[in-house]
Amino acid sequence: MKFRIMRFLIRLGVALIARVEVHGMHKLPEGNIFVVANHLGRLDTAVFFCVIDREDIIMPIAGKYRYHPLYGLMGWAVNGIWLSGDGSDAAALRQTLTRMKQGGLLVMAPEGTRSPTEAMQEARLGAAFLADKSGYPIVPVGVTGTEDRLVKDNLRHFRRSRIVVQGGEPFVLEVPKGRGREQAYREATTEMMCRIAALVPQKYRGVYAGHPRVAEILREQLVPETASEPTEPG
Question: Helix (H, G, I), strand (E, B), or coil: what is residue 33?
Fold first, then answer.
């Protein structure tokens, strides 16, 4: 019940300040899923409550928001997993993996924190570790229009922000067993992030812009290079 009430309030709040366009999320498979997305702003978490109609969500949340009036309540409603300082603690990863083994839908930003450049930054290895250990199929999702600066400016001018959520094709991550695990996780992380980068316009790709794997994915999946972008404040 607490989850449904919180989800209703979040959806109402987001609808008041933004128009959320959703593409490709119908590709979400049933059962256990690992959704990985880029992380632009504070609204990212709320947006996923709007576009996912499931109650078995597993969501790691930065510990600094534990007592926040809004994000603390959101974390409480979904029984969130609170991360410590840098968002990469081993205890939280173990707790997340335990929850995943019980089944559900994990939503995670491999970057671990909001991007200060409003474009994708280098991701950490935790998401690849969880994908490998759980065997969950991965669904990459690109989010644009949630930049804190852009949302705040629109609010000051009584404009609703335009947020675009673009889902990609599910895939299964295969990490070779044996020696060289860290390098294997780095390569797997790059694969995840390149798949996300292929779902957002060029200016959002950050450190993954120009990566040959992004161009290859665009050719394979026929994702338009001219995908729509949120409108900048006038």
Answer: strand
Nearest residue to 199 (alpha-carbon basis) of 146, 147, 141:
141
Q: Give the 3-state secondary structure of residue 196.
A: helix
Provide DSSP, 101-144: HT--EEEE-TT-S--TTSS--PPPSHHHHHHHHH---EEEEEEE
Calculate Rg over the CA atoms of the chain.
17
Distance CA 3, CA 29 (A): 22
Domains of the chain: 2-221 (3.40.1130.10)
**Strand bridging mode 161-167 / 138-144:** antiparallel
Instruction: With H, G, I as helix, E, B as strand and everything else as coil, classify residue 229.
Output: coil
* Measured distance CA(85)–CA(190) in Å, rounded: 24
Please report the pLDDT score of residue 85 as a whole number: 58
Predicted structure pTM score = 0.90
